[in-house]
Input
Amino acid sequence: MLNERRFFLSLMPYLLLLVAGIVDSVGFLHLKNGVFASFMSGNSTHMGMMLSYHDYPRASIYIAILGIFIIGAMSGELIALSSRRFYRGVVMTSVSIVLLFATIMQYYVPFLVINFIICYAMGMQNIALRLTIEKAIPLTYATGYLVNIGRLLALAIVGKGDKKRLMQYLGLWGSLISGAVIGGIIMQTIPQYSLLLPLALTILIAITLLYIEHTHRSTPIDTEL
Output
């Protein structure tokens, strides 16, 4: 069971990046104005541009998105601190509940509001990859993945590369891109059901995590992925 636990935890970054890519793509295409649900670097850049043009109404949207994302991460951390043993499963259960709420409310409120809701969920989801109380893996950090790919390729040229790490970063970046592609396809075919796939994935991840943590209680709470 310990090996199964480690295997699933090692898959989590790729699964969560897939979810984040789908949600980002769906949110961006619904709004058509450059707002992302999880890619905060892009939102920060857009906020700066809008401020430089004195377009304060649009800048306020990005400010709100950034603030909600931070609140989501804060909420996820509070859940993790209170849940302890099962924090990954409880965090992902909370993410699923928020996405379910967004799925229901998309028929009743403007999609900008839905983007705020799913942004909150994506901020919370980052905490599911917390390694220790001091350290977490940020999702959708594509720049960091690409920089590390470049570094590892350079090391490979001089005979010092780590092929396993290179493939890991390529896989992480690929998961995010794959999610964005899937989200785009969904928006072209069944936009009215665009949030059902990420919702199903987060529910599956939450159930698996809760089962694994319940059946192997003796392992440390925080372990390296």
Helices lie at 2-31, 40-52, 56-83, 87-105, 111-125, 142-157, 163-189, 196-215. Residues 185 and 191 are 9 Å apart (CA to CA).
